[in-house]
Amino acid sequence: MKTWLVGLVVGLIAVPLGARVDLLLVPPVGPVEANPGHQLTLYVDNPTDQEDADVRLPTTITAVYATQTTRGVVRLKVVAADPASGAVFNTTSGSLVLKVPKMTSQTITLQLADALPVTEGFVSLRLTDPPTNSIMFRLVKGAVVEEKVAPAPVYAALPPKTQERVKNSAGDIDLRNDVEVVRRHILGYEPIYFVIGARERINARFQFSFKYRVLEPQPEPEAIRDLYFGYTQTSIWDLESTSKPFYDSSYKPTVFFQREKFADEGWWSHVGLQAGAQHESNGKGAGAATVALSNGLVAPPNPAKHPLDSRSLNTLYVAPRLRWASPESGWFVETSARAIAYLQMDENRDLPSYRGHVEVMVRGGHDRGFQLAMHLRGSPRRGRGSAEFNASWPVTQMPLLKWLVPVDVLRSLGGYGLIQYFNGYGESLLDYDVRRKDQLRIGLEIVR
């Protein structure tokens, strides 16, 4: 293991985590009149378990809005705050100061100070300073707005500099546009990450994955509502050999049904069931046999392995999942077991004796904080298998990174710092029957 890699891993683990806050704007429950006075709720969350957070917010907050015909800005005033936060209104600076203890959430009430220029239809709105998520609600006709109340400015009537600021901050705020419709269909599936490490040589492993909901959630029929298409790609990248080749990649298109049942009874949170068909391949079709190189990641020849570098298999699977969560602390534990039936393995008929017929995944931690995940698979009777462990933290909770990168940059970057450890057979599909030295890598995880 390279000295610099060991030092960085120790630094990430040894230094305590820092505090952070997340802002969540809540959409109204029902229709809203376009007149000033309607109230919205803003949650200020501290999802870390290490430090309390001191938060300062302006008492008048600017928001951008979008309708089907116009775009502009609107002001909201802070009218109330959770008494438990010890909120203090500073009239001189026009700010609100409050404390958010670790693993807690504080509530702030905002009130529309301007009238929206439309009286009916849907409107999307997002705070810009500080930035929050977008919400969407329906406007209805209300009482006539008094003349002394100026409506929120229409985008075209704004000064040029203000137009540019609104244009840059609004983005895809209209939740009914094509981009947002696609987002409602595309969801996270398996983890997305990029990690780098050193074993025989410096190498990287990266994965991206998504699932596509075929239809938007509908009351009926339930079977069609739960139909998904998934895709996952995992690659190992040799960063020292000539031309920096990708040693091997695994492509996994999947069609499956997924059903979740939620509960609010004590620790038990929900149970899920996924069942489907998956094809896995390294994308090679009867290519030449791999050649053993002294300066690369290619494994030595193995007489028991198929002479070609093509690998593929088709499987059916059923994967139940259970999750337990503590409403008080926010910590959770979930476990999943995937039972696999192999249908076709022309290039690697002995693969089940290395991967086994059951995979076990266990994950625990805090939804917005530290998490530890474990993935086990193999054939215990034959003494073959693999174990993978992933420890991750939000990047804003890693002081070592905060010393090197400004916190505002880390907050914009998002994602999680990741330490990944792999032990056993078959880290790549090409080497499903090869056991290399243990591998430790670090990097960035985007979805976990």
Word description of this protein:
There is one protein chain. This protein is mostly beta strands. The protein has two domains: 20-165, Sandwich (Immunoglobulin-like), CATH 2.60.40; 181-447, Phospholipase A1 (Outer membrane phospholipase (ompla), Chain C, Beta Barrel). The chain has seven helices and 24 strands. Residues 3-18 and 144-148 have low confidence and may be disordered.
Strand content: over 45%
Q: Provide the residue-averaged pLDDT.
A: 81
- By CATH reckoning, the class of the largest domain would read Mainly Beta
CATH architecture heading of the largest domain:
Beta Barrel
Tell me the Rg in angstroms: 26 Å
How many beta-strand runs?
24
Write a short abstract of this structure.
The protein has 448 residues and is mostly beta strands.
Can you lay out the helices and strands and say which pair or pack?
Elements lengths: L2 H12 L7 E5 L5 E2 L5 E8 L6 E6 L1 E7 L4 E11 L6 E3 L4 E6 L3 E9 L8 E8 L2 E10 L19 H11 L7 H8 E2 L4 E7 L3 E12 L8 H4 L1 E12 L7 E20 L2 E14 L30 E14 L5 E14 L7 H4 L2 E9 L4 E9 L4 E11 L4 H6 L2 H7 L2 E9 L14 E9 L1
Parallel strand pairs: 2-11
Antiparallel strand pairs: 1-3, 3-9, 4-8, 5-6, 5-10, 6-9, 7-8, 10-11, 12-14, 13-14, 13-24, 14-15, 15-16, 16-17, 17-18, 18-19, 19-20, 20-21, 21-22, 22-23, 23-24
Notable features of this structure?
448 residues; mainly beta; Immunoglobulin-like; Outer membrane phospholipase (ompla), Chain C; 2 domains; 12% helix; 48% strand
